[in-house]
Amino acid sequence: MEYRIILIGCGTVGQGLLEIFDRKAEQLRDQHDFEPKVVAITDKLKGSVVAPDGLNIKKVLSLLKEGKKLNDYDGPRLKVEDFLDPLDLIEQVEADIMAEMTYTDIKTGEPATSYIKKALRTGKHVVTSNKGPAALHYHELKELANLNQRQFRIEGTVMSGTPVFHLVENGLAGNDIREIRGILNGTTNFILSKMETDGMEYDEALKLAQELGYAEADPTADVEGFDAVAKVVILANALMGGKIKPDEVKRQGISALRKKDILEAKAAGLRYKLIAKVKKDGSRIEASVSPEKLPFSDPLAGVMGAQNALTFDTDLMGKVTIQGAGAGRIETGFSILSDMLAISRGEKKK
Ligand code: HSE
Q: Which of 6, 33, 77, 228 is the most exposed place for a label (fewest CB within 10 A)?
């Protein structure tokens, strides 16, 4: 089945998704009956292109690799000057799914939240990897989606394409989740790991994390725990029925930790990790992000480098731990694909 798709934002994640569409076209069609037809792309820096008959993905990818604008696309398309504002584009272009992959603004959730509302109101399913709208407006957006009989899916907001939401929605369905506890920020886990295994100082390890592209544009969001706070709020609200806000989460980052603290802990058989936690007690939900010294026997203590992990404490299955990538071009591109496949499975059941 063909799905008309709009991409809002075509940076690392959007290009990762396009690469997957290109590389996996046959497998997606033959094994999943999923044929993506990208009908519009708009990006703040790279311009826009609208083509109701579908874009040639290879052409788009090579255009972007050459550092050219989407407006330079050579093929059948509409006049792009008619769509200068992404909100107009979302309203006017007919599509089945909108993938929202713009930057995260954790204070306002904008402009992504307005894009998502516009798409749901104009009958499109929405998939996003953006933490802002999911952390600040999850219930409102989910209700709007339900009202319009569309899906609002957020797999990429926590642990990139590692299937956190799919796991709870499918594999663990029927369980009550009492607690979720884990490592949700790759940058800080990388820094803590490097301080221990390579004897690096904090600043040196942070610089390397930035060079490798793990850190947010402003690494304060990582090292002071704001990024993990956004993710733990999303988990609390989307998976445990919470209604909490980021400023209600107790937060402490890792910027005060030095190599000496890490090595002292190690000598005592312990390892520092930035732990994000959300616990349900009756109707009360409490969340926190702070460095903890874990015994080596804790599964989370063995998670090194930029990897993420989560332990779900459930009533029927006890503790279930999942570990995997928390960021990355292809990994987060995959999160968008996995949500699109879930939408397509849902459409087929109708
Ligand atoms: N800066 C984030 C991290 C990227 O280090 O985990 C993924 O949200």
A: 33
